[in-house]
Amino acid sequence: MTTKAPVWKAGEELPSITLPPVTRLDLIKYAGASGDFNPIHTIDEAAARAGLPGVIAHGMLTMAVMGRLFSPYFGHGFIQRFQTRFTGMVFVGDVLTVGGRVQGVEASDRGDLYSFDVFARNQKGETVASGRVEFLVCRD
User: Fold this and answer.
1) Tens-digit pLDDT string for the chain (140 aa)
2) Cα separation of 41 and 75, whole Å?
3) Coil, strand or helix at 93
4) Which CATH number fits domain 17-138: 3.40.30.10, 1.10.3720.10, 3.40.630.10, 3.10.129.10?
5) Which among 20, 73, 82, 109 has the fewest CB atoms less than 10 Å away?
6) Domain ranges of the chain
7) What is the DSSP annotation of 49-90?
């Protein structure tokens, strides 16, 4: 490994990530990759019939972008647990910002297990998803 393993302290924030606006193509690609072809995610008429103002992003797509917070650290460890609560809808054109804060750390034989509170907010500052991630930084 060329970089040093991360060491975080309780209360420390991960650098937030602001993503490009969600596109219909993102939703179509995710539907294909995940096998979730519920038409409320890709077809305007189906979303309208469901009482929605437009197509909505898959919840698991929102969760996946929250997981991108940890991409820079995968050379040193992995996400051991990821729990998410969806609290809002994500629409085409929404700009999501994801972030997280260290809640604590426990040492183990395998490494240091960090717990994080994570979130995704839209461009209005509304939290659309929140959760808890446990990331294990493995011993070298």
Assistant:
1) 447 899 999 999 999 999 999 999 999 999 999 999 999 999 999 999 999 999 999 999 999 999 999 999 999 999 999 999 999 999 999 999 999 999 999 999 999 999 999 999 999 999 999 999 999 999 87
2) 33
3) coil
4) 3.10.129.10
5) 109
6) 17-138
7) HTT-SS-B--HHHHHHHHHGGGGGGTTTEEEEEEEEEE-S--
